[in-house]
Specification:
Number of helices: 9
Number of domains: 3
CATH architecture of the largest domain: 2-Layer Sandwich
Distance between the termini: 55 Å
Number of strands: 7
Helix content: 55-70%
Strand content: 5-15%
Length: 377
């Protein structure tokens, strides 16, 4: 936004300091003048018994006092003006020095340099709080931009794979006229289906955090049961047992998105499990340790995960060690979608490795208002 150049803040502060100093000096001189007038007569008189010569025994009048007081008062005010302007200019410069650093950092950020930090030294005050807040904002922006770049690169790679496979199949079919068209059609359909699924997952991830859904009262326990029934054939195929438990867990949000959360977590727990005789525990509850919240917990057996790896599993296209692609391996977006949906519902997602192997995922959401009042009553 283009603005006409105005008077600088430093000059305005300098004039304010000098003006205040001049006003204080004028008031002080006026007080002294009023105080002196109380003891000075209007007319000259001679003390009885004095000779009245050479000023002996003669009190000065107010006019004489004014002639003696006025030049000194003017000199004092002139000195205060010069001192106020010079001192105010220096003080204003020192006071505004942190603001200049913040302005320079803002311009650098506007030009694309998000790695610069102000790091204003000294004790805490308004300027340093502003600088610290700006540094924190820059850090989050830099992290967000880096995450978006990684996401774009990974999405491009994931989308390029089915396109490259399709191109290869078509090239082979063109060079081999006698190739079975039915096999080609089946493979192209499978590749196209995966590409469509990846695209839909990307769209869901982009829309999940926009809070464009209509909120209503939902029961997480019912959503968990529905997700378990839907994915039961997949669990049987992988030899995984699903154990459900828990109480009614009323929350507020989008039933479709929260069902997607339960389904994604359960899908991951089934696919990334032991090769045989794996188990998934699915439970809901009103959290006793966190009043006003409900929890959805999905826990599964599986390989041991490194503690430093677990927090990164919510990043798009991130897969843990040993998590390879398969018929139902997904696109690496399951936990990313869950995290985005949970944040859009003002909830928290916690991932923790199980000591015996596998993963424990806890979704904590605000409890429905009526349920919260019932639990506190």
């Amino acid at each position: 936004m283009d603005r006409a150049r105005g008077v600088s803040v430093r000059l305005r502060l300098t004039l304010s300091y000098a003006g205040f100093l001049m006003l204080a000096g004028a008031l002080l001189l006026a007080a002294v003048w009023v105080f002196l007038l109380r003891y000075v007569p209007v007319r000259e008189f001679i003390v009885p018994g004095s000779t009245g010569t050479s000023g002996s025994g003669v009190f000065p009048t107010r006019s004489n006092l004014l002639r003696a007081f006025a030049p000194g008062a003017v000199a004092v005010l002139a000195f205060l003006l010069v001192f106020g302007l010079a001192g105010g200019w220096i003080l204003a410069g020192r006071m505004l020095a942190p603001l200049a650093r913040i302005t320079d950092a803002t311009r650098m950020a506007a030009n694309g340099s998000l790695s610069h930090r102000i790091r204003l030294p000294g004790r805490g005050d308004e300027f340093r709080e502003l600088a610290d807040s700006f540094d924190a904002m820059l850090a989050r922006l830099e992290e967000h931009v880096a995450e978006q770049r990684r996401f774009a690169a990974n999405a491009s790679h994931e989308l390029r794979t089915p396109l490259a496979i399709t191109q290869a199949l078509l090239d082979v079919a063109r060079n081999d006229p006698d190739r079975d068209g039915g096999v080609l059609d089946e493979r192209l359909r499978a590749v196209n289906t995966r590409a469509i699924g990846l695209t839909e997952a990307l769209l869901l991830l982009s829309r999940a955090g926009q809070r464009s859904f209509t909120s209503e009262r939902v029961d997480l326990s019912l959503l968990a049961e529905e997700a378990a029934e839907t994915l039961l054939p997949l669990a049987e195929k992988h030899g995984v047992i699903i154990e459900t438990s828990g109480d009614t867990a009323p929350a507020v949000g989008s039933p479709a998105l929260l069902l997607q959360v339960a389904a994604n977590l359960l899908h991951n727990a089934i696919v990334h499990n032991l090769p045989d005789h794996g188990t998934v525990w699915l439970g809901t509850a009103i959290s006793p340790g966190h009043p006003g919240s409900v929890t959805l917990t999905v826990e599964n057996t599986g390989e041991r995960l490194a503690p430093e790896l677990v927090p990164t599993l919510t990043e798009p296209f991130r897969r843990g060690a040993g998590r390879v692609r398969g018929d139902h391996a997904g696109f690496g977006l399951g936990l990313a979608i869950v995290n985005s949906v949970v944040q859009a519902h003002d909830g928290t997602l916690t991932l923790a490795p199980r000591p015996a192997g596998g993963l424990r995922v806890t979704v904590r959401l605000p409890v429905a208002p009526s349920a919260a009042s019932d639990s506190t009553a």
